[in-house]
Amino acid sequence: MKRWFLVILFLFLAAILSSCGRSIPLEDLAISLILGVDLDEEDNLIISESSPVFNSEAKKKIETYELEAKTIRDSRRHFDALTPGAVTAGKIQVLLIGKRVLEHEDWFNVLDTIYRNPTFSVNSRIIVVDGPVSDVIHYEPEDKPQLPLFLKEVIDKNIDRSRTVLATPQSLHRQMYEKGMTPLISELKKGQDVEIVGVSLMDQYGKYVDTLGMQETSLLIILKDKQTEELTISIPLPELGDEGGIFNKNELSIDLSRIKSKVKTTYNQDKFHFNYKIHMTASIVEQLFTSGNVKENELEKMIEQELKSRFEGLIKKIQKNKIDPIGLGIYARAYQYEQYKKVEGHWGEALADSNIDVSVDVTIKSTGAIR
């Protein structure tokens, strides 16, 4: 009896599951892989989407549509009218947002529909475009993979190398509502090619305030203690001087690894104090000056001083803009909760008035195969 019951239950479940959805041929679908959100010169909302074409008779393998709409969801009916396939957004790989959008405080509400749609991928890569989104979404590289895959690969590669940051719908939502930090998103621009330029920094309302270049972004990732692999930094050593000419004789490139970043949080004299201690090992991968000009322990001190100066410059930029892309507010909340709650609503201003000290300890583990 029990066996018959299991057989009947299996057949019932199989019938239910097989009838849950209607099978649609792949060539009858318009599977959006890129979604673009931008503003034109009159501040009209411009939505764009790009989909692969599966019809064997089609000459173009990517179809791209761009139109004016009131909301992202409102654009859906327009796209349905333009494309012969059934539009689906469940496979979007990249969400492009124009920098003009970020110049308005209330822009994040535009993305409301992607959080209400349970099929929207929470792992889509969000990228800020320095310039019109249309320049990127219509980019058709001849010697590269299709644009959605190309953009995703470029972002992921630079994330692995600690040159930019990962922003997804899920992580961006947390950053927007987390009072102890301010949002940051990967930024690219379209010149002759599409290239990553660093990260866009925003204030507590999500409004764009500044851009960090690639090396500044690497330093920020160290302060956030989020580096995953070795990262390469090129620095000049002013103490060695420069002999002039067309070559930079005091330039040094190093691979940094085993990076340990610790921060101590205190509160006194009506201010927060953050004391960073950063330890790392360095491998010299390029050196344009003669090794005999400086001893190894002296070189370590020069590298420490240059990195310390760069960290301090980055911190000054952050404090000047009254933002917190590092997430020091999370440390303040964890270790100085009562004082943090008093300034939670205007944490950026409190951080701008804080003392942030950085000490750097560098150990050279390798000078390369030649001496």
From TrEMBL:
* GO annotations of cellular component type: membrane
Its predominant location is membrane
Keywords noted in UniProt: Germination, Lipoprotein, Membrane, Palmitate, Signal
Domain named Spore germination GerAC-like C-terminal is located at: 198-368
Out of the domains of life, which is the source? Bacteria
Give the way it sits in the membrane: Lipid-anchor
Q: Where in the cell is it found?
A: Membrane
Domain named Spore germination protein N-terminal: residues: 24-189
| GO aspect biological process, one term | spore germination
Q: Which family does it belong to?
A: Belongs to the GerABKC lipoprotein family.
PANTHER family hit by this protein? SPORE GERMINATION PROTEIN B3
Q: Under which name does UniProt file this protein?
A: Ger(X)C family germination protein
